Each structure stands twice: as C-alpha cells, then as structure tokens.
Predict the structure of Tetraacyldisaccharide 4'-kinase.
Amino acid sequence: MRAPGFWYRPRSWQAALLAPLGWLYAAATAQRVRQAPRHRAGVPVICIGNINAGGTGKTPTAIALAQRLTEWGASVHIVSRGHGGALAGPVRVDPATHRADDVGDEPLMLSAFAAVWVAKDRAAGVHAAEAAGASVILLDDGFQNPAVHKDLSLVVVDAVKGFGNGRAIPAGPLREPAAAGLSRADALLVIGPEKARAAFAPALPEDCVRLDGQLDPLPTGMPWGHLRVLAFAGIGHPEKFFATLRSLGADVVRAEPLDDHQPLTDAILKRLDSDAKAQGLILVTTEKDATRLPDSFRHRVTVLPVRLTISDWTPLDRKLRALGLSPS
C-alpha cells in the first residue's frame, strides 16, 4: 500500500492518534536489533538499508555499489528477502527461468548486475552466497534484522521525504527513531535534487559519513519532448517517476500510481492498454515494474531506467578499503 499523506506532515490528528502504536513498534524494533547475530560470514557483508519504510532508493544504490565493487575485481553477490516472491530459498535468481512471482521484482532486476540470492532467512542466504564464491555480499535491506553480522551499514534516505514526521509506523514512516538508526549506520546516502539534499542535514555520529546522490534517467534514444504518455508505476513513491518523465519533456497526460510491488493483473493491464489506445498515448513504466509484466505485454510498454549518480565516492571508498576491499 502507498504511504499515507499524514506521514509527511509535521502535525496531524491521525499521527497523534496512532502515536502509542508507533511507540510499541519502535520498542519492538529496538528489542530486535539488540539481539546477537546468528551468522558471521567469512567475507565482508555490506547492508544497504533504510530507516524509512520503503521508497528511498535502495535498489539503485545496490546496483551502483555492485557495479563499483565489480569494477574493483570483487565477486559480488546480493542477498534479498525477495519481497513479493513465492520462493523461500535460499535460491540463486536465474532471470532465464524465474519470474517476479517467484523471486520478487527487485531481485529479478538486480540479477542483471550481480549474482542474486533470494532467502526469507537472510543468514541462510548469506551462507549460500559465501559457499558459491562471493568475496563480498550486499545485503539488500535488513538494517533492522539481526540475523547476520554487518561489517558496514549504508542507510539510504530520500532527501525530499526525509524522515517524514519523525514518528514510527503506523504513526509515521519510520521503522525506528532516526537517531537510533543513525547511531548504527556507517554511512548515510541522501538521494534527491541538489536543493533538497542541501536542506536535509540530520545530525550524524562522528564515525558515520555522508554521501549525496541523485537518480538520473539513462539515455534511451526516445524523443521524450512533447511525447504524450500514460505513465504507471508501482514503486515506493510513484510521483518521483512521473516527475522524471516531465523533466525530460514528456507530456504525462495520465499518471497511474500503483501500490509498491503491486501485481500487474490482466485486468489492470487491459484497462491501461485500452485507455492508452483511446487517447493515443504511449504506455511508460519503470524498470522495476517492467519485471512484473507478462512477456506477451512487454512490447507494448516503454521502459525508462534510472541510475544512481554519487557526487563523491571518497568517504565510502575509505570504509570499503578498511574492510579489505580495493581496486585490483
């Protein structure tokens, strides 16, 4: 489901009413993260997580970090819980045979950049990746999960949304209080437009470094200027995708926000296709949503991929080198 609007308002009666439940949620998270890890890998484990619930940019971050470490000569494996997938794992994602219904849309997308393991039990997934020859493991999400020892934790946050109203679920967007989460972070990656990044400046522990980045659309050869489109997106914050299309000059005649990871049923696709044809529009979606499209429908949809650009890798590179990782 999409995040309620009151999560991002300073004051609301809904947040005040739900505050006691938020305190309980935060207390449960605090108790969980105090547990000792069940598994410590023999190779570095880097967690890419967040304090907010969804929609911060973890998947583009995993892609960017996997590409960087691969360029350094590392054998990168990614371990994901596989949200939305039916397989419990641990299973290595095979894009030739697996579908999003099997392993989840994000692992399927990530498998184009590194070996990906889906495992509901993250410790089992990390063990499988290590046994398969990983020299470094990226833990996709799991910042609040104590199952695996993390050698480095990179917290990702959206600069525009920030930490919302500062309350925990369901009163706000946080899985735990921001200060508590940042106290365990080794690095904070702030993603968004330059102006929003400059305005977002949370206090960080002395040993936590900050990185700044933004999501940039990849060149596709598509003449977006004045192209009339029906855009649909089932990501954490669909409005960001629609804004990207508009920034390229596309005329977003209709923007259809879907729930994050929402299955693209025949009924939904038939309706979108019919509406697009009736108005002479081009269907456009995100790279993540495209993994959930049936093969028979993919040729009807244009995909706009985005990639993370980090302005300065130096602070994170230092921490990676401290783990024994360096360019070969």
Q: What stands out?
A: The chain has twelve helices and 13 strands. The first strand starts at residue 45 and ends at 49.
